[in-house]
Amino acid sequence: MMTAPVSDYIHCKRHGGCLCKLLPSDLDISGFPCVDYSPAGKQLGVHGSSFPALLALCAWHRQRRTKLALLENVPEFPISVLEALMGDLYVVKPFYMEPSDSGCEFLSRMRVFILLMLRGQGASQNYTSILRWLCLATPPPVGKLLGLELW
Predict the structure, then answer these.
(1) How far is CA 98 from CA 41, 63, 74, 134, 141, in A?
(2) Which residues are CB-contacts of 127 (< 8 A; sequence separation ≥ 6)?
(3) The CATH number of the domain where 44 resides is what?
(4) Is residue 127 part of a domain?
(5) In the chain, how many domains are there?
(6) Is residue 90 part of a domain?
């Protein structure tokens, strides 16, 4: 699965369903389905129906060698799964955040953000600088949550 070729094209709703070429990117900020890990879901983990979506996302990053990815999910997601799938190519650094720490007072559920840093790019050596860069628009409590002095 991880060595299967990924397509450079995707069906594009914006352009009437035609195939549009995906441009290369050094940064991806996204997430993957949480239903197989969430307390609100069936908690089937890697045996759940959405696990192939995570495998496809990992295969995409592996083939593209995305330098930096920030992935969001539920805190129950086992980080060891991403470490097993991506740890040979990426440094995997999770951090947990309450929505209120970033000004989202009306949300109540904690989230996990998983930073994937391509090995050999220098980024993995200084992830605090990367977090600072990613969190510039976020209030200082995030740094306290992470146990870092970002500001």
Answers:
(1) 20, 32, 11, 16, 10
(2) 91, 93, 115, 117
(3) 3.40.50.150
(4) yes
(5) 1
(6) yes
Print the domain residue range for 54: 28-146
Residue 72, domain member (yes or no): yes
pLDDT tens for 57-100 read 999 899 989 888 989 999 999 999 999 999 999 999 998 888 77
* CA-based radius of gyration for the chain: 16
Write the single-letter amino acid at 95: F
Q: Is the pTM of this model over 0.70?
A: yes
CB 59 within 8 A of CB 19: no
DSSP state of 137: T
Residue 55: exposure state from Cβ atoms within 10 A (0-12, 13-18, ≥19):
middle
Joined tokens for residue 42: 């069936």
